[in-house]
Amino acid sequence: MGIIAWLIVGLIAGWAAGKVMKGGGYGVVMDIILGILGGLLGGWLFRSLGIWHGGGMIGSIIVAFIGAVILVAITRVLKRA
């Protein structure tokens, strides 16, 4: 995927993760960063488990969303500590 596609996937995944996890949110830029990092985390996790082998924008958004939710949960736990 190109850089624009990565940004779109990151934005969608980060925004959705912020909505699902509720709370104050981190802003658009941080949502994009969490979405992109979530995509990397989700891709690594799913590939390690043998569940996902890539495929399409929707699959990428779902995997990035799951990874972003995990990252948002981790950042909130660390923020409280």
Indicate the radius of gyration in whole angstroms: 12 Å
Helix content: over 70%
Query: What is the molecular shape?
Result: globular
Provide the β-strand percentage band: under 5%
Low-confidence stretches: none
The tally of beta strands, per DSSP, is 0
Q: How is the main sheet built?
A: none
Along the chain, the helix and strand elements come as HHH
* Span of the ends, CA to CA: 36 Å
The number of helices is 3
Mean pLDDT: 80
Q: Return the structural class.
A: mainly alpha
How many domains, as an integer?
A: 1
Describe this structure in words.
The protein is mainly α. The chain has one domain. Helices cover 81% and strands 0% of the residues. The protein has 3 helices and no strands. The longest helix is centred in the last third of the chain and has 25 residues, at 56-80. It is globular, with a radius of gyration of 12 Å.
What's the SSE blueprint?
Layout: H1 3-21, H2 28-49, H3 56-80
Helix pairs in contact: 1-2, 1-3, 2-3
Key attributes of the depicted protein:
globular, 81 residues, 81% helix, single chain, mainly alpha
